[in-house]
Amino acid sequence: MLQTMQIMSYSLPVLYFITFLAYLYDFMNESKFLHNIKRLFLFLTLLFHVVYLVERTFYLEHLPIVTQYEIFSLLAFAIAFTYFLIELLSDIRGTGVFILIFPLFFQTKSTIFIKDVYLVNSILQNYPLGTHVITAILGFSAISISAAYASMYFLLYKNIKANKFNIIFKRLPNLEILDRLNYYSILIGFILLTIAIVIGFAWLPSAFPGFSYFDPKIVSTMIVWLIYGVGIVLKASKNISGKSFAKFSLYAFLFSILSLVLTGTILSGFHDFVN
Amino acid sequence: MDIIGISINHKTASIELRESLHLSQDEILQFIPILKQTVFSEGYVLSTCNRTEIFGIPKSGKITYRDIQKNLLEFKKVDGLSSEHFLNYFSCGAVKHVLEVAASINSLIIGDSQIHGQVKDAFLLSEDLGFSKTLMHKLFESAVRVGKRTITETKIGEGAVTISYAGIKILEKIFSSFETKAALVIGAGETGELAAKHLRENGIGKLSISNRTKLKAEILANKLNGDVIEFNNIKESIHKFDIIVSATSANGYILEFDDVKKMMKERKGKMCSILDIALPRDVNPKVVDIDGIFYSDIDSLNIIVNENLKNRESQIPLVNDIIMDEMKSFFKWYNTLNIVPTIKDFRDFFEEIRLDEIEKVRYKIHDYEYEKVDSMTKRIIGRILHNPTWNLKRISETGTNFEEAKIYSDVIRELFNLDNKPENNSDKDFDNNGAK
Predict the structure, then answer these.
(1) Which residue of A182, A199, A244, A272 could cross-link A149, Cys pair, CB 3.0 to 4.6 Å?
(2) Nearest residue of B to residue A241, measured between CA atoms
(3) H-run or E-run covering B97
């Protein structure tokens, strides 16, 4: 079982790479064949990823959400899956190449560094933790996607401004749609982060004797949550839009990544479960 | 093949000449009977703002393209027009030209889809007037098929190839829907009107027109269901518009950098697109530096137009393949026109001989023996005729060399005397060995 799991783990970056290439080729060359088939590639990759996660759960006898690299794999899946849903619902297929680069990166890093045998704290093998972590990961996936849409917005904005009618101009959806996709992704991310925070506050004090409201991860997540909350209010009240909102989205995302990295390395508190 | 035709188009004559020669539908209705009477047994007349074309099957071999030109120039007297302004087509070249026109690769703007409908209408008018028979009808079917295939199988009609349409394409990359947007068109001249029309056709929510001469603005606004903004009050009103198209003939800028900057303050940074399609320009191009302003002038719009024209030109080889395909099937059909009657006459000739010969023994043998002889002779004739029939069909159906098929057909008709049937029926001069 371990060998199968390892083979699957190494296959996943390859599958994400193939899917990414399919989206990239279609973006560059508008291939009639790939226009429809690339979605099938993504679906099959996601299916394979689900099988891998299920197998890992059975093998480890707990959800694979404990180590940083397990989280990376789950993050890769969450981003790809969220994008898959957005593509299905909106039928806007030209943006995948900008988003699927993230799952490729996260899964590759996960595959290289993930450990298949480690000791796990028994407190982490329960339902509230699963919900807390999964909603938090989905929330971060959504805001990662929002950052991708914000980047696309900037690219297209600059192209139109400079009267450059290149591939970016031809393939990306219009600015208003990108602005809307950016906003909706932030909204979904914010809701999921809210759920993760509520569950965390309800469950963590009873589960961890050393729990502190001033734990670096809690503080940084709260700041991220507040920043996005303010952004949503400003956008909803039409005080911010277009380029300013795209700028906001990118800065907020950079801040959240920075805070994740810092709290995961230098300022780690009780959220460090592996050690 | 004896189809001939003449064409006058943007490659051969100035717009003035083309306009003078343009035939309205009423004129075509009067002209076709003249053509029927003098030159063509069947044909069609196509006349658009860019071309006038007359093609058909001559009534006799003596009729040439000069006769068609003469007819046209007598019907529509145009000063300065001579035979040099006409292109003349014969046979395969004529069919190819008709199909190229239908495929829109012969148009002033390559890929202009309007021509598909115009060709179709011209053929239908011919049919209504009884001027289109078997051959023209088949050519019409091929032309329609070529038109359809060029749209579905190539990208010849894709991309904006006019300045105002290119402007719409830029707007489509900024706004998701025009229904909730307000547009101001400054200048009610030809260019402004075209831009306003494009905006209306694309579903703009609110359309306003402004022009130095208010009456002109009012006329255009009424036509397109819009309203009028006083030309002198433009600067106070521009903040209400998401799209500003400027197409005046004013010297100097109508909108300066500070005007647009002030406008964006009032719009609270909400995006605005300015399409400056005037020459000289109406808006200070420095406005492009203002956040939220998308400024495009004729030069930048021309980038789109030229690129799309280039893309369309790159599709011509694909369209030519389609034309070649359709020409092959057209000529395959056409060549069988000669062969089919020959094959029929050829088989009838043998059948008549067979029937004649077995009739002679009908009362000399038993019925069952007669039936055997009947079926045996049928088989013999069938086997004898199988190869020549099959080869004749093959020759007629391969390629566009109808001359070859005609030669074979003529040889068979001559050898078996198929055009003088009564003589064939006589067997008095033949002995029992089949010799005279």
Answers:
(1) A182
(2) B270
(3) helix B91-102
pLDDT digits (tens, 9 = 90+) for B248-289: 988 889 999 999 999 999 988 889 999 999 888 999 999 999
- The ipTM, to two decimals, is 0.81
Residues of B within 8 A of A177 (CB-CB) are 176
* Chain B closest-CA separation from residue A83 CA (Å): 20
Q: Is the peptide bond before A13 cis (omega within 30 degrees of 0)?
A: no
Of B175, B291, B304, the CB nearest to A176: B175
Cβ contact (<8 Å) for A176 and B176?
A: yes
Mutate to test the interface with B, among A165, A166, A168, A234 (most CBs of B within 10 A): A165
Best of A164, A171, A176, A181 to substitute, by most chain B Cβ atoms within 10 angstroms, is A176
**pLDDT tens profile A203-262:** 877 777 777 778 888 888 899 999 999 999 999 998 888 899 999 999 999 999 888 878
Percent of chain A with pLDDT over 70: 92
pLDDT of residue A275: 44
